[in-house]
Design brief:
By secondary structure, the chain is mainly alpha-helical. It has three helices and two strands. Strand 1 and strand 2 form a beta hairpin. The longest helix is centred in the C-terminal third of the chain and has 111 residues. The chain is rod-shaped, with a radius of gyration of 48 Å.
Length: about 250
């Protein structure tokens, strides 16, 4: 087993379980981020389509509003100064809300019109009143569409940045973290298998040595037993008397 650096995991059962748990958590994070990226990209494409359509409509509405203003000026004269003098407080205000899309908060701008404020007053009573009201409605419609377009463009850039960041995380998990964890797990498994083989070989050698010692001990015991048996037979033969021999 070679020398281990700081990034090499220690081969043990506990480390193996920890590495497997980390891999499971990393894979779950990868799956969630991949789903988030897909959901954001779908919403991103929808926003892009709406932006293209809204820009086309805004161009048409702006042309209609400009044409209405020209007709109003022709019918009632230049009334710009009268409107500015009659404004005491704002008629149109913007409010901000958020829309949560896959954990990303997208801003939504909304136009609020105060109906209690009468900007026109007596303007156009003598002539051109209906044309001026039509011009007002056309410009309010243009304003609503421009505010909607602004909301979509802000959402477009926010989604673009979030998708890029999410994809970087997905790629990091898929190409760096998960392969590194797989490599660590495979390394630990190989090292543990090698340790088990070494332990099995060591136990086998110990068993063989014990068996050899036991055999040597049995041989010595048998030799001592044969010697003692021969000695006992000799002593027994010496102690016996033969009655047929007379000296």
């Amino acid at each position: 087993m070679g020398a281990l650096d700081e990034s090499t995991p220690v081969p043990s059962r506990i480390t193996l379980q920890l590495m497997k748990q980390k891999k499971k958590s990393a894979f779950q994070g990868y799956s969630l981020l991949k789903k988030k990226s897909d959901a954001l990209f779908i919403h991103f494409r929808d926003v892009l389509k709406d932006i293209v359509k809204t820009k086309t409509k805004v161009g048409e509405e702006m042309r209609n509003a400009s044409f209405s203003l020209a007709k109003s000026v022709w019918a009632a004269g230049d009334f710009k100064g009268q409107i500015i003098e009659g404004i005491k407080r704002p008629v149109v205000t913007l409010s901000l809300s958020t829309n949560n899309v896959a954990g990303v908060k997208l801003p939504i701008f909304q136009v609020n019109i105060d109906p209690t404020v009468d900007v026109l007053g007596n303007l156009g009573v003598a002539a051109g009143g209906q044309v001026i009201n039509n011009t007002r409605e056309n410009y309010l419609q243009c304003l609503n569409m421009l505010v909607k377009l602004a909301s979509m463009q802000v959402a477009f850039f926010s989604l673009d940045e979030e998708i890029k960041m999410t994809n970087r995380r997905v790629n990091a998990l898929n190409n760096i973290v998960l392969p590194r964890l797989d490599g660590g797990i495979n390394y630990i498994i190989k090292e543990l298998d090698e340790i088990e083989r070494e332990e099995f070989y060591r136990l086998k050698k110990i068993k063989e040595k014990k068996s050899d010692k036991l055999k040597d001990s049995n041989i010595d015991t048998d030799a001592d037993g044969d010697y003692n048996a021969s000695k006992r037979q000799y002593n027994y033969a010496c102690t016996q008397k033969d009655d047929d021999i007379i000296f």
